[in-house]
Amino acid sequence: MASVGYVASEHPGHPVPAGLRSWSTLWAGYRPVDITPPELLPPGLAASVAQGWAEPYVSPQDVPDWERRRAAALVPFTFAGGWPLNPTGRTGWAGRNLGRWGENQAADPVVIAGSGAERRVLLIRRRDVGQWAIPGGMVDPGETAPAALVRELREETGVDLAAMTPVILARRYVDDWRTTDHAWVTTTVALFRLPTRVLATAGDDAADAGWWPFTGVDHLAGLLASVGGLYPAHRALLRLVPDADLAVAS
Ligand code: RP5
Ligand code: MG
Ligand code: MG
Predict the structure, then answer these.
(1) Which of 51, 92, 133, 186 could hold 8 in an S-S bridge, CB 3.0 to 4.6 Å?
(2) Residues framing ligand 1 (Cβ under 6 A)
C-alpha cells in the first residue's frame, strides 16, 4: 500500500485523519511525534518514580507484567512488536506522557447537588490545563476504582463521600490531553447525588473548586467559557449523567 506522508508535527492541532486511525490500515509513512516530557526520561525519570506517580520503564518492552495488565484492562488492547497500541487507533503522538505505559486507569466522581433549576455539579480547575473538570485522578497501584473515586474527590475538593455508594455510570476510554499511541487513560465514572451543596475547597492538583449550574453539558460549557473553559475530555463523561438528574431548562 502506498504510504501517506502525514507527519503529525506538520499538522498542529490536527487529529489523524479518521480513515487512517485504525491500526489495521497499513500506513508506512506514519510519523507520530514523541511527546515524552523530560520527567519521564532518564535522568529525570528517577525523581518521578520516587514521587510515586511514574513507573520506571523507559520502554514498554521493559514492562514485565503485560499479561496481568491486559487481563485487568478496562478497555481491551493489542500489541505490535512489544508496543501496546492505543485501543482507539493512531493518535499522532508517541512516547509516554502519563505514569504508565499502556492503560492508565483513572476514577471520575461526578457529584451533583440540589434539583431543578438549583441543580449543580462539583468541578475543579485543573492546574495543568487551567480548565474546569471532574475532580478525578489516577487509581493507585493496588487501589480499587471505588476507593480512588472517594480519595481523589477528598484530595481535590475536601468533600468526603466515603459513606455513600455511588452509581457507576461507565467504565470507558477518556480522551485525555496526555494520550499517545502507547499510553492512554480509561476511567470509572460514578455519580454521587447530594440533597444540597457542601463546602468545597481546592487541594492537590486542583487550582480551584466550585459548584456550577448543571442543566446540561452545553449550558455548562457556555458558563465556563470565560473562566478557562470545560476540559474537553470530560464533556462526554458529563453527558453520561441521566436526564432525570438534569433540570429542565425553562
Ligand atoms: C482525566 O485526567 C481523567 O478523566 C481524570 O479526571 C484525570 C486523571 O489524571 P490526573 O487528574 O491525576 O492528572 O483525563
Ligand atoms: Mg488528584
Ligand atoms: Mg486529578
Answers:
(1) 92
(2) 106, 108, 133-134, 136-138, 174, 176, 185, 187, 205, 233
For residue 24, the CA-to-ligand 2 centroid distance in Å is 35
- Does the 103-245 domain belong in CATH 3.90.79.10? yes
Nearest residue (by CA) to ligand 1, atom 9, is: 137
In DSSP notation, the chain reads: ------BGGGSTTPPPPGGG-STTS--TT-BPEE---GGGSTTTHHHHHHHTSS-S-SSGGG-S-HHHHHHH-SS--EEETTEEE-TT---SEES--SSSSEEEEEEEEEEEES-GGG-EEEEEEETTT--EE-S-EEPPTT--HHHHHHHHHHHHH----TT--PEEEEEEEE--TT--SSEEEEEEEEEEEESS-------TTEEEEEEEE-S-HHHHHHHHGGGT-B-GGGHHHHTTS-GGGSPPP-
What residue segments make up the domains of the chain, in order of their start? 8-100, 103-245
